[in-house]
Model the fold of this input.
Amino acid sequence: MKPLFVLLITFVLLVAFNKYTDADKSHIFAGNIAMSVMLLFTAIGHFKFKTSMAAMVPLFIPKKVEIILLTGILEILFAIGLGVEHTRYYTGITLIVFFIAILPANIYAAKHRINYEDLHKPGPGLKYLWFRVPFQFFLIAWVWYFSIR
Done:
């Protein structure tokens, strides 16, 4: 839920600020920067909560903490790539693939009631998927609209 708020609040603030500029396609700029800010926000979680987030990775996959750290680094790189007009299109395509690839980890975490911020507390369980799955599709649509089309 926090990433959604970061994305939307950043977007609204940038659009409000951009109305005072002459920039064409300022909403495209705002959409990409808002996604970049959200990705930087979520990347912080990959480093701050790496052990808890590693529990989201299915048991049969080795090097869980390393995978979490790598995905945090990828999110930082995606944030940078969206901010550069020449790389935005390919970053957007890669980011959509990334969003599709991480959905099973979120489903696994919900199924096993994993709290990615604190392993000692149970996560919300399967009801979380009623938010997470549509949110994932929303993120994919956002990236497609602002970065690819």
About this structure: The two ends are 26 Å apart (CA to CA).
